[in-house]
Amino acid sequence: MHIVSRVHRPSAVRGERNATRSVLGLALACAAAAAVLTGCSMEDATCGGGEYPVLAVGGTGSACVPNGEEPPEGYTRYPQGKVPEHVGDEWDTYWQTHTVDKDGNIVEVPEGQ
């Protein structure tokens, strides 16, 4: 008489897949917790890291300039304290209807421009 013992051995692939899911889930949970705890905003930044926003003189256009560089011709820095940081924030909205003239004065942009 021959006796066969059957032992269930889980697939190594299935174990690796579950481990990958667990690590991914843990990483996402940690990232979300870090964003909440540090006050990190999920809003779109006006410019990327290492850049600052500049305003078109006489218009509502804007651009991003690498830190340490001067604005290109036809652009100027936003007035201190009135720099947009995120798309749709208070200053981003404000500068859609205002600009800086060639003398550095803040002026309203005529409708349709």
Polypeptide structure, described:
With 113 residues, the chain is of the alpha+beta class. The protein is 28% helix and 18% strand. The strands form 2 sheets. Strands 2-1-3 form a 3-stranded antiparallel sheet, with no helix packed on it. Mean pLDDT is 80; it is low at 35-39.
Beta fraction = 15-25%
Which spans have pLDDT < 50 for at least 5 consecutive residues?
A: 35-39
Q: How many strands in all?
A: 5
- Calculate the mean pLDDT score and round it: 80
As a percent range, the share of helical residues equals: 25-40%
Describe what is shown at a glance.
The chain contains two helices and five strands, in the order αβββαββ.
How are the SSEs placed, and which strands pair?
Layout: H1 12-38, E1 51-56, E2 62-66, E3 75-77, H2 90-94, E4 98-100, E5 106-108
Antiparallel strand pairs: 1-2, 1-3, 4-5
How would you describe this structure in keywords?
113 residues; 2 helices; two-stranded antiparallel ribbon; 5 strands; alpha+beta; 3-stranded antiparallel β-sheet
